[in-house]
Amino acid sequence: MESVRYLAGDSFLGRRDPRVLILVPALTVVTVALIQDLRLMAPAAAIALGYYASARIPFAAVRANWAFVALFVVILAGVNGLVAGTQQYHSSTMFAIPVIGVPVSSAAIAYAATMLLRFLAITATGFPLAFAIRPGDLAVAFARLGVPARFAYAIDLTFRFVPTVSTSLHETIAAQRLRGYEVAGTRNPVRRIRQLRPLIVPVTVGAFVDAEDVADALDLRGFGAQRRTWLRTIHFGAVDLAVIGAFALATILAVVATVSGTMPGLWYW
User: Fold this and answer.
1) Which residues form a coiled coil (predicted)?
2) How many CA atoms lie within 13 A of 42 on its CB side?
3) In this structure, are residues 106 and 21 in contact, taking their beta carbons and an 8 Å threshold?
């Protein structure tokens, strides 16, 4: 049974070889990590968003994920970028951040905006890796990329195991409610964790038992004793090669520009 995490359907990325969705985020990380100029980072982020849009992932299904990313990016890249940019680059101060009194310059704003777009580009190309690859194709894709079979199969089991744990959690919650268990509303994080103890213990124990059963089943079938073959076969198409080639070219250009010293530095006004 496939995981509910697959949300791409028959979209452009949904029809691609799964190795494309693995290689593109890796190439994007290298590329945007080398770009410092906001004028170059903006089109890079736009391309990444276009790549994400081609997966046609329903926003309602990933709203919570994007909310978490937005909070993380604003705190880590936004606020931290302003502070770090002020310390690393010197330009005329425009205003000061209330309460903490940190002076903000045009260089700090440009640095923070560059970081925001960098994290946005990485997230946009990374989301299809989680939501646009069929769970049954993930292990095959890693194996065809040269990853050892044990590691590839561990990834496959992990993605198949997550829905199982989620189902077990819902069943445990229903069973506890039949016994009169209800979670009282509280903002105290310690108390919330203590209230979840009747759920955490049985779910965790059940997960370990299931994992041990799978490990025993693999050992009984001689897993790892010889080279593994995969029933599912995947092949690069012309469009797949074109997509990988375009992102690989961008990465090569960024690396060459950085090594040669022609990569523009931070741009600010």
Assistant:
1) none
2) 8
3) no
